[in-house]
Amino acid sequence: MTKHLLKNSWRSTLALAMGLVVGTAILAYVATGVANGPRSDRAPVVSDLRSQDIPFDGERAYGYLKSICELGPRPSGSRGMQRQQALLERHFADLGGRVRWQRFRARHPLDGSPVSMANLIVEWHPRRRERILLCAHYDTRPFPDEDPVNPRGTFVGANDGASGVAVLMGLAHEIHSLQGRLGVDFAFFDAEEFVFRDTDTYFLGSEYFSRAYAGNPPPYRYRHGVLLDMVADADLQIYQERNSVWWPDTKPLVDDIWATAARLGVREFIPQKKYEIRDDHLKLRNIGGIPTCDIIDFDYPYWHTEGDTHERCSALSLAKVGWVVREWLRSAVE
Fold this sequence. Notes:
By secondary structure, the protein is an alpha/beta fold. The chain is built from 9 helices and 8 strands.
């Protein structure tokens, strides 16, 4: 399967329909329908909430998203990724997080050369032995391969790459105010989609993280994991990802988060299943044993195109997602 049957391409969808096996590739974001552009069955969500109604600073998160995009493309091992890593390390350390790096290497899919990679982990209240994991991938795809005009052009990954990072950068300002028994970690996964061909392997960072967690258990355990991916679409519609609902250990987590959104009046969290998506949460749950759900708006017309820029993203969407996650987290750590 791939990050193509829907977060990746019409080719993958066709391949799946024909029953073809794509070697050992683990294509990221697989969904049950085609979401590679505007959908005719997509009705807009009507929400009464405005920025001033939401006690989460979406404009600040949007500013972070823009700053990340200004670094340019951020594929694994690139200069853009190195600059982003330095930016994030400063940001979280300045806000009191304990930052550590989980460094590893992988072979370049095209020439076999070693590529230096790193997951970034930020610990809050690090002495607490029971913890919650909030995570996102922070690499960008090497090229906008779904762009109809320039599939080898420039891809800055505003929604697909920077949006989850921006929400967690904003949440870091408030994390110390969340009093409770549980600790919180942020994890930013490298090489979620360091792929150049349909047969290349996805989720290298989350797989490395999960294998290390399961194979060399730390003195703490994660009670839950929440993955944030593509959460800044101006036309925000977040359905429940099918794996996250089917798994008995993650369904209660999904129910709690969407119930939190309903209580807050954030209608963009729609309590219905839609896509089955292959994403980092599969590695976290199936290898690491961490019950993890995926919060993702998979209907995004600029996915993997040059059009995925900050202008297509929304501070209000970031505010809504950040608010829901923060309020769910507030109840979860108690």
